[in-house]
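### Sample
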Amino acid sequence: MRNDVTIRPIAENELETVETLVRGAFAEEGEDVLALMGEIRASENHIPDLDFVAEVTGEIVGYFMLSKFAITGAEQVKNMMLAPVAVRKDLERQGIGQTMLEIGLLAAKVKGYASVTVEGNPAFYHKLGFKQSNGFGIEATSGFPLTHPECLMAKELLAGALAGVEGKVIYPYFHA
């Protein structure tokens, strides 16, 4: 873990900086990701103190958000969605993403959240302890089949939180 990365909740006046960072990190999908961010931030699922920026030498170089996200069929599990996750392109593969997520997931655990789901690159998220979600009994909705099911992953923040779960993540939950 890098010791020069500061993780803190985003300030409202930093949203424009973060939007520029997200556009750069997601290229042609950037506007869709920004729309999702807007929907989450406007919803009851938004948790302002789990909406983070990462700084190195006082400059915002990363962003990620954890929000409430129910697993249908397992509503008793206090689950979160990790999305989006962005690191400035020229600083990728330097440990910033891993450091910011380790700190953020610990903050979610301290707040009592039991698990996190994410869709992303398994090579990266497996390093953080995420596993393919269907190994926990969590599938994507039947109306939104994933081309690469290995990209839907989950992580228990509290040991055994996903034991015996059989449920679905509901993608149409958000319009973006």
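The chain has one domain: 5-173. This sample (GNAT family N-acetyltransferase) is used throughout the tutorial notebook.
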